[in-house]
Write a structure and sequence with these properties.
FAD/NAD(P)-binding domain; five-stranded parallel β-sheet; single chain; alpha/beta; globular; 540 residues
C-alpha cells in the first residue's frame, strides 16, 4: 500500500509514524514544502522570550532522523500543486529547481496546514513586519530584539498566539501594545472574562486596544508607526497574528469537498468525500463534540489525535473522532487562562437553556505558600444539569481545571455526577473540596435557588440599579456602602426593610453568600449576591 502524505509538522508526521507502526510494509512518503518536517510551532513565542534558548530545541525531528526512526520517506522542498483523483496522483514542484514530479498513491493524506493571514494594508511588506508560524519567523524576531532594534512593538491580533507573543516580548523589555478588531481579546471567552484579562494585562504594562482595526503600517524603509482606525501609534515592529487560512488552494477543481472557509470537510474517520483521501490538522474541518456541527480546530493537540486516528483507519482498524471542544490554555504575565466547551452565548445559540456562575475559589490550601485563587465561569444546561463549558483565570494550574471539565463534557456528565468526584487533595495542590467541585456546588446552589445573584455581565448592564449595596467583606472595603459583619448577624436587622433590594458584595462572593443565607432565614426576600465580588468586578 502506497500512502502519500502532503505536509508534516504535527498531523502529517504523526500519521506517518503511526502508520508505519501499524503496517511496516506500507510505503509511506511525506511531501513537505518547507525544510523542517517536524517542529514545535506552539513553542515559538517562548523562543522569542528566551524561555527556550536555542532554535534547535524547537526542531522535534529532522527529515533524516525522522526517516531513520520510522522508515518513512521524507521529501522536503516539494510543494503539492495538483491532485488527480482519477489517476490517483499528486503533482509537486521542487522549490529549488521548479521541476515537476508526479507521485502515485493508494491512499492520500492531506495535512498541508495553514498559513498566516497577510492583511492587505499599506506597508505590510516593510522590514519590521513579522509573522509567527515557523522557527525561522521566531528566530528573525528574536534576533531583532536581542540586537536592540525593537523597543516598541504592536501585536495585531488578541488571540492566544498574539497574547503569548506580547507576553514574551514584554518579558524582554519591549513595550507592547495589542490591537484587536473585536470588542474583546480572547475569542472563545465571554466578554466579562476577557475584560478582566484586558485589565490585568494593562496592569502588567501590555495595553490591549479592542475594537481597533489595523489599517496601515508606516515607515521609510522600516516600520515606524502603525495606523489604526482611530490613531497612529509609534512602533519599531509589527507582529501579525490575525489568524490563519488553510493551505488548500491546490485542491480547487478536484471535487474534494471544501467548507466555506476553504478547510477540507471530513467525517469522523478523517475521510473526505473521496474514500481514498483523508485530511488532518489545520487544513481540515472536524466537528463540535457537543453539537455535532462543523468546527475548525487548528491546534497541535487535535492535529496529533487526528493523525493517529487516520493511520489506524488506513491500516484497517476501527476508530472514530468524537470531535473537539475548543479546549485551550494560555500563559500570560502572572495569569493563566483556559477554556473548554461552550460559552454562555454559544450554548444559548445552540438551543440549550444555559445557566452560568462566576466564582472566585482558592486554588490550593489558603495557608500554603504561593496560594492564590481561580476565577471560574462555569456553564451548564438548566434542564439537564449537563456541564457545557468552563473558563478559568488564575496564577495556578488552570489547565487542570480545564482538563477535568473537558473530560466531564466528553463523558456527558451532569453536575450531580460531578459534585462528588474523588479528586486529588493535598495542601500544595488543591483544597479539601477541589476548586472544580467547589464551582459545581456553587452552580448547583444557583440552579436550585439557594444562591440568588446578579452576574458580572448583569451588573454591567444595569441589573443592580435600585439596589442598596451592602459590604459583606471581612473588613469594610466599599466606600459609602453599609457594612455588615456576618458574625454579628443573629436576628432581624432594623436598618434594612424585609423586602428591600440589597446587593451583597464581598471580596470573592463567599461571605456575601453566607450573609444571604442568614438574611433569608430572618425573612429578607430582596437580597442578591454580586458574583465574583470585588476581586472580579469594578463597582460603579
Amino acid at each position: 500500500m502506497r500512502v502519500l502524505i502532503i505536509g508534516g509538522v504535527a498531523a502529517g508526521t504523526k500519521a506517518a509514524a503511526k502508520l508505519k507502526r501499524e503496517d511496516r510494509s506500507a510505503e509511506v512518503t511525506i511531501l513537505t514544502k518547507g525544510s523542517d518536517i517536524s517542529y514545535a510551532g506552539c513553542g515559538l513565542p517562548y523562543y522569542v522570550g528566551n524561555v527556550i534558548q536555542r532554535k534547535d530545541q524547537l526542531i522535534v525531528n529532522t527529515p533524516e532522523s525522522f526517516s531513520g526512526l520510522t522508515g518513512v520517506t521524507v521529501l522536503t522542498g516539494m510543494e503539492a500543486v495538483a491532485v488527480n483523483r482519477e489517476q490517483k496522483t499528486v503533482t509537486a514542484v521542487s522549490e529549488k529547481t521548479q521541476e515537476k514530479s508526479v507521485f502515485a498513491y493508494d491512499k492520500l493524506v492531506i495535512a498541508s496546514g495553514a498559513s498566516p493571514v497577510k492583511l492587505p494594508v499599506e506597508g505590510v511588506n516593510l522590514p519590521g513586519v513579522y509573522f509567527m508560524r515557523t522557527p525561522d519567523d521566531a528566530a528573525a524576531l528574536k534576533e531583532a530584539v536581542e540586537a536592540g532594534k525593537i523597543k516598541r512593538a504592536v501585536v495585531a491580533g488578541g488571540g492566544f498566539i498574539g497574547l503569548e507573543i506580547a507576553e514574551n516580548l514584554a518579558a524582554q523589555g519591549v513595550k507592547v501594545s495589542v490591537l484587536e478588531m473585536a470588542d474583546h481579546i480572547l475569542p472563545g471567552f465571554d466578554p466579562e472574562m476577557a475584560a478582566y484579562v484586558e485589565r490585568h494585562l494593562a496592569d502588567k504594562g501590555i495595553m490591549a486596544f479592542t475594537g481597533t482595526k489595523l489599517v496601515g503600517i508606516l515607515g521609510s524603509g522600516h516600520v515606524e508607526k502603525v495606523q489604526t482606525g482611530k490613531r497612529a501609534m509609534k512602533a519599531d515592529a509589527v507582529i501579525l497574528s490575525v489568524g490563519i487560512r488553510a493551505n488548500t488552494g491546490f485542491l480547487e477543481g478536484t471535487g474534494i469537498e471544501l467548507m466555506p472557509d476553504k478547510t477540507v470537510k471530513v467525517d469522523s474517520r478523517m475521510r473526505t468525500n473521496d474514500p481514498d483521501i483523508y485530511a488532518l490538522g489545520d487544513c481540515a474541518c472536524v466537528s463540535n463534540m457537543i453539537t455535532g456541527d462543523a468546527q475548525w480546530s487548528p491546534m497541535g493537540s487535535s492535529a496529533n489525535i487526528e493523525g493517529r486516528l487516520a493511520a489506524r483507519v488506513i491500516a484497517g482498524k476501527e476508530g472514530s473522532y468524537a470531535g473537539v471542544l475548543g479546549t485551550a490554555v494560555c500563559k500570560l504575565p502572572e495569569l493563566n487562562v483556559g477554556r473548554t466547551g461552550m460559552t454562555e452565548s454559544q450554548a444559548a445559540a445552540a438551543g440549550y437553556h444555559p445557566v452560568s456562575v462566576v466564582g472566585v475559589v482558592d486554588d490550593k490550601a489558603h495557608y500554603y505558600p504561593d496560594a492564590s485563587f481561580f476565577i471560574i465561569k462555569m456553564t451548564a444546561d438548566q434542564k439537564t444539569a449537563k456541564l457545557l463549558g468552563i473558563q478559568v483565570l488564575g496564577k495556578g494550574a488552570a489547565d487542570k481545571i480545564v482538563d477535568i471539565a473537558a473530560t466531564a463534557i466528553s463523558l456527558k456528565a451532569d453536575l450531580y455526577q460531578l459534585s462528588n468526584l474523588d479528586l486529588a487533595y493535598a495542601p500544595p495542590f488543591s483544597t479539601a473540596i477541589h476548586p472544580f467541585e467547589h464551582m459545581v456546588n456553587i452552580l448547583l446552589n444557583k440552579m436550585e435557588g439557594e444562591f440568588e445573584t446578579i452576574t458580572p455581565s448583569g451588573y454591567i448592564n444595569g441589573e443592580a440599579d435600585g439596589y442598596r449595596i451592602v459590604d459583606a467583606s471581612l473588613q469594610p472595603s466599599i466606600d459609602g456602602a453599609d457594612y455588615v459583619n456576618l458574625s454579628k448577624v443573629t436576628g432581624v436587622m432594623t436598618e434594612f426593610g424585609p423586602d428591600e433590594k440589597l446587593l451583597l458584595v464581598c471580596a470573592k462572593g463567599k461571605r456575601a453568600y453566607m450573609l444571604q443565607n442568614r438574611l433569608k432565614y430572618y425573612g429578607y426576600t430582596g437580597t442578591k449576591v454580586l458574583e465574583g465580588g470585588l476581586t472580579f468586578n469594578e463597582l460603579k
